[in-house]
Amino acid sequence: MTDPESLAANIAGEMSTVLVGMDELIEQLTIALLTRGHVLLEGVPGVAKTTLAHTFAQTSGLTYNRVQMTPDILPSDITGNSVYRVQTGEFNVRKGPVFANVVVADEINRATPKTQSALLEAMAEGQVSLDGETFELPDPFIVIATQNPIEMEGTFDLLEAQRDRFQQKLTVDLPDADIERDLLDRFNGSPTMGPEDISPVVPDGAIHAAREAVKDVHVEDVVLEYILDLVAASRDHPDLDHGASPRGSLALLQTSKARAAVHGRDYVTSDDVKQLAEPVLNHRFVLTVDAELSDTPPSEILSDILGSVNPPEGKMSSQAPDAAKTPDQ
């Protein structure tokens, strides 16, 4: 099992024994893992944000650490520090919780900007400097940060440059009635079931092999132009002071390739780009003052942008393998 489609299917199948109604979120996390991205999860308390991240790590066979972000937490509490050993008379480096494959920063907006920056530096560089020495972080390495959108007292909003470091922002919604009933039925018989009951289903080397397969996914020039046109439209939109950055363009390209791969295709379609546009671009938008005062949601602006840019359907050349197939065939 080294192809992205099988890897994603096995992860989703095993995680579904604990999680209900989160198939799309699981796929998005898999896409982030395959493209070395980081994810910001937003949702009200009690919707299983942390459980989602922990279960994903357990299923993937990855090491996992959780950091509860609070206003008094220091950068060294995340990255580590030097500890003086009386017995030896020397300083020894104590690595922090960031040294894990999957790091969950719970309620990241409760930490001070200085602490947020320390974590985001690790995300960007893939390494940490402690006492003048540089330490490589594990590979794979993915940060899944959570935040609560309804309790803002005592929080520090992520700055635009910090939000831009996250490949995707995913919203964990309240479940509908049918899904919540299924949840109650499942946990009625197994009330203590959790991530620890999950078995790893990803063998050694499979993630690396799947990442290599994603690199080989074909992208037509017209699809590249479509991505560029969407990003350019965000920069020119009257409700936005700042649209998506070049980092956003690259993220949309890489995630679209990964989505194609986990759906069993070796080429990208405009549908892949459309499906990834919201989680990849929305959090990068900086609204104008008028748009903020009008409570204009970024999703509405993105819908306007998607409606204003024509997708390249019907323009695919014969270079795209099996171009005549339907998007997720």
Automatic annotation (TrEMBL):
Q: Where is this region: Disordered?
A: 298-329
Highest taxon listed in the record's lineage: Archaea
InterPro entries tied to this protein: AAA+_ATPase, ATPase_AAA-3, CbbQ/NirQ/NorQ/GpvN, ChlI/MoxR_AAA_lid, P-loop_NTPase
Q: Which SMART domains match?
A: AAA
Q: Which residues form the AAA+ ATPase domain?
A: 35-176
**Listed name of the protein:** MoxR family ATPase
Organism field: Haloarcula saliterrae
Its lineage opens with: Archaea, Methanobacteriati, Methanobacteriota, Stenosarchaea group, Halobacteria
